[in-house]
Each structure stands twice: as C-alpha cells, then as structure tokens.
Write a structure and sequence with these properties.
There is one protein chain. By secondary structure, the protein is α/β, with parallel strands linked by helices. The chain has seven helices and seven strands, in the order ββαβαβαβααβαβα. The protein has a seven-stranded mixed β-sheet, with helices on both faces.
Amino acid sequence: MTFPLICTLSPVGEGLPFFVVPSVGSTPLALVRLARSLAPRRVVHAFSYAGMEDDQAPHRTVDAIATAYVAELLACSPCGPYLLGGHCFGGAVALEMALQLEARGETVARLVALDSMPPPLAIAAPGHDAPTGADPMVCALESLGRRVLETVIARARGNHAKLPADVAHRLGGMLTLHIEAAIAYRTRRLRAPVHVLSTGDGRDALITGWAAIAGGGVSSEEVPGDTFSMLAPPQVEAVGRCIGAALEAAER
C-alpha cells in the first residue's frame, strides 16, 4: 500500500510553514519534539523515507528522494517562498530539494542544516578550483563524515535489534542504501542562504563546506548536545529557539 511521504508535525503557527527532513534510518517521529519547540510556533511538515514504514520501493539516490518530496511539498503548498531544513543526512536531501525548487523558478527563503554534512560540489564555484581529496577542508569533512556515519549506523542498528528479524533486515538494507546515496551525492551551488546549527564537533569544517555551497550566504550557531541529543530534552528547546529565530529572519 502506498502512503503519502509528507506528514504534519505541528498544525498551527504564524508565518511560512517549515518543511524538514529526518536523518537516515529515522522517521518524522524523531522530529516531533523539535517541531513543538520552535519559538515562535509555526506549521511544520516532515517527510518519511519510502519503504521505511510502508511497502513502497525505496529511492536509491538523494536526487530521487528529493524529487518525490518536492512533488508532495508542491501539492501541500503550491506557492512559495519555502523554508526547508534537514537533520544530519536529511540536510543533503533538503539541499537537493531546494536546488530542484530553484530550478523550477521557486524561491527558497532559507535552508536550515541541523548538524548536517555539506555534500561535495559537483563543479567548482566560479573563480575557484574544485576541491580535491587532498584539500584540508575536504579531508576534515570526510573525517567528520565518517565519524557521524559510524554513530548513525550504530544507533540505528541498536534500534533495529529490538525489532522482528524480518523488519530489522529490511530497515538495515535501507540504511545501507541511504548511506551509499549520501556518499555518492554531489551538489551544486544554491542561491538561497543556509543557516547551520552545529553541536561543535568539526564546526569550522562544517561552516566552510556550507559556505562553498550557499550563494545567499551562510550563518551559523553552536547548539548544545550531539547529533542525536539535540532533538531531545533539554537541548531541543534551545535548538527550537535558534531555528525559530532563523526562520523569522528569513521572512523579513
């Protein structure tokens, strides 16, 4: 049976709705506390990964995931501008969504990256050489990315161990598929501004990487916790205030 990939986490609030993508191996439920912690409150929609909780075939690339999400976003909210965000791996998906919306002539007012690794650029920015594996920034990002992925894999597999064997096997396959998609993804320059929330580990490399992507400029804040605890009390309240302020600023 096919189900919508978009759901509403917070149905009330002021301003433009916020569309957010969860991390690999997780569902919109992981973002419920975050949605309710935004200050000021606003409508928040989140996306599910095909095949996580239904019988749909999973998407095999970041581009394909984003394409499916953009279709549902436009059906839900056909007129922009748009506020997008993503947690960890979800940041890459939200970035590709923003690029696809811009390619359609839509305006993305802001992209919020929550402890999310900036993907490598497919081509160099004008006036710059494409970064290589020998570039110190690329090396720092790859090192940080490996640590983040290892943590994500360990956490997800720990959760899968509590599930029936057939379900755990299916979800384990999806986790591997999405990690491979994240590693293979190459991005393009974005016209919209990006606001980066980081928990401190590798913060300089994170900001430098996003600055190379964000044509509209990059802003950043350090928030408490780690990649996972930032979504849970007590840290999530501070994260919600930071996101709320960044989204308000994008609408001015």
